[in-house]
Design goal:
The chain has 14 helices and no strands. By secondary structure, it is an all-alpha fold.
Length: 300
């Protein structure tokens, strides 16, 4: 291996090791927490930490943008050196990181296991409003063994089949924390799916195309959702400048915290269906999907 090839390999390994996916997941969890507190504050008329979370989210957004810029710079430098065709990790792997099971630490023997959430059935009530499907009377929320990544695959399967009743059952069967986690795990997944559908990285000018490709199906499966929620998700996928997003949302009431999570899960299923993929393609160890060129993307 020449000195130039060794330099390229080291740069590529460094770029692959950057925790872009983990930072993006943390950013989305902060954003989800902010939405939840905004809703609680609206109901209680009390300031309970929203500004602090907003600052943390902004820092996470800057960190994610800096990591993406660093990866782009390394890729551009390798291209200048003529090493862009050398083997390395495939691009756009953040979505795999977001779907991996989170590491859990066993509690010390003297500590009692954490109690289950005691927030009441608000998650099931909101799911019923969004889907139009009431919670089964004999079903208890919090299906054993179902984490957020598995819930996303179940939701995507229900969307692909076009079965709103099935979609409602899957969402009703989990607790609020598992359901709200959809906001975090779907962000890099949606960005990757949108890139595959468009044939290039999503850009702000792609917002109308993505909206027209998804809004009809999303509305049919979630008749109770607001168009504002889908618009915000698509703006984030296409990385519309934050200031522009804030201007569009100015004066609008805070959305329910479950709305973004549920809509993001359904949007993931819609884009999967547009690409002709099934829910198993969302497994972190699934084979790398074939990315189509721009002309193929236009034809879907």
């Amino acid at each position: 291996m020449s000195l130039l090839q060794e330099l390229g390999a080291q740069l590529r390994a460094t770029s692959d090791d950057l925790p872009t996916g983990l930072v993006t997941k943390a950013m989305e969890r902060l954003r989800s927490a902010t939405e939840l507190l905004n809703w609680v504050r609206q109901e209680s008329q009390q300031d309970i930490g929203v500004p602090q979370l907003g600052n943390a989210t902004e820092h996470a957004e800057h960190a994610a943008a800096a990591l993406r810029a660093a990866q782009d710079a390394v890729a551009a430098y390798l291209a200048v050196l003529g090493l862009s065709g050398q083997p390395g990790a495939p691009p756009g792997q953040d979505w795999r990181d977001s779907l991996k099971p989170e590491e859990t630490r066993p509690a010390p023997d003297r500590e009692a296991p954490p109690e289950r959430e005691k927030l009441g059935p608000w998650w099931q009530q909101r799911v019923a409003q969004l889907t139009g499907e009431p919670a089964p009377e004999d079903d208890k929320p919090g299906r054993d063994g179902t984490d957020t990544a598995e819930l996303l695959r179940r939701v995507a399967a229900g969307v692909r089949s076009g079965d709103r009743a099935r979609l409602g059952r899957e969402l009703h069967a989990v607790n609020a924390s598992t359901g709200l986690g959809l906001s975090a795990v779907t962000t890099p997944v949606l960005h990757r799916l949108a890139a595959d559908l468009l044939g290039h990285e999503p850009r702000p000018e792609d917002v109308p195309r993505l909206r027209s490709a998804a809004e009809g199906r999303v509305k049919s499966l979630l008749p109770g959702t607001s168009p504002q929620v889908l618009q915000t998700l698509i703006d984030r996928i296409c990385r519309v400048p934050v200031q522009q997003q804030e201007q569009q949302q100015e004066g609008r009431p805070a959305t329910h915290p479950a709305d973004s999570a549920v809509t993001a899960g359904v949007l993931t299923g819609v884009l999967l269906a547009r690409l002709g993929r099934d829910a198993d393609s969302l497994r972190p160890d699934a084979p790398e999907p074939v990315r189509r060129d721009d002309e193929a993307g236009e034809g879907r």
